[in-house]
Amino acid sequence: MQKILIVEDEKAISGVLQSILSDELPDYEFVIAEDGLEGLKQIEKEDFILVVSDIKMPKLSGTELLKQALQIKPDTTFVMISGHADIDTAVDCLKIGAYDFISKPIDINRLITSVKNALDKRILQKTNQNLKVENTTLKKKVNKKYQMIGESPALKKIQDMIEKVAASDARVLITGPNGAGKELVAHAIHAQSDRSKGPMIEVNCAAIPSDLIESELFGHVKGSFTGAIKDKQGKFELANNGTIFLDEIGDMTLIAQAKVLRALQESKVSPVGSDKEIRVDVRILAATNKNMKQEIESGKFREDLYHRLSVIEIYVPPLDERKEDIKMLVEHFSKIISEEHGTVKKEFDEQAIKSLENFSWTGNIRELRNVVERLIILGSNPVSADDVASFVRK
Hints:
GO terms for molecular function: ATP binding; DNA binding. By secondary structure, the chain is an alpha/beta fold. The protein has helices spanning 11-24, 36-45, 62-72, 87-96, 108-145, 153-166, 182-191, 213-218, 235-238, 254-266, 292-297, 303-309, 326-341, 350-357, 364-378, 385-391; strands spanning 3-7, 29-33, 50-54, 78-82, 100-103, 172-175, 200-204, 219-220, 232-233, 242-247, 268-269, 278-279, 282-288, 312-315. The strands form four sheets. Strands 2-1-3-4-5 form a five-stranded parallel β-sheet, sandwiched between helices. The protein has a five-stranded parallel β-sheet with strand order 7-10-13-6-14. It is elongated.
């Protein structure tokens, strides 16, 4: 049960206050302090949702009690009681941080209203604090899931870019070789954005047959083509109020590119076989391992779409350009892979790490993860350079 503290040196008044307020607020427990010093000790010892305090009291005045209590517990809510001669002091108490003051002789209705309003405010503040804690915890969990492992200058540059662009709705084109972590960057941007509570829909443009990509992106209506046995929502519509990640955008057909361009220009999509337009609010992130300027020059990619998608461009370098991150990546992968396999985490000795740093990682981080998994399964503990030589092909 939450507690309310009444600090009043006149027992008759404190008794009346307790009687009146307990009738109005039966769900609260009331504690009496006979002077300001005792009130301060009570506040130090317990948490009170509200303190109702007189101003003129022996040992410690209500004003001093307010100041000291707020230093100890800044969230404490005070309603002050003052005589007519103490109005200026009561106003000072409001400046210090009191919620309200009640003049003597006490108007009972005014007191009850003030106390109830103060409680409502305190409960609202507590709820907001809890929501902030939950949101912070959720954000930390999300960020941890998509954290960027390493401390190389190249990675720090990417992290700085993510932090800057995440808060906006700017479209981002993520470039770099296969396996370098482009998808991870996209997830990190979404996770740190204001759209993080909305969906993130991924589309691998290279994995969808060219004759189906329009249907995947924009949906279709029943009977619009062979096999369309029912209406289907497209990825853009599913991503409404969230983010759509178009991976391997360079493999998209020119026809689909034209429709994506229209969706960007008008924030509308039309399902295949329908004249209906569906308004969508979607942030677009795209990724490619191709040289887009060459793709444009060869007529395989629309220049106008490229400029629409690449408001911000983030380049993810190959692992060979950030080999100083290999040690941390091996530690990270060793931990999560051991957890996945339900085995004891294996260590990698320094010579094993050096051997791995000397390799050329054409498959980038994805290849490194596979190698670490192989060494955890087949290698000794700790994993040695001999293990690397035996089980990893250069």
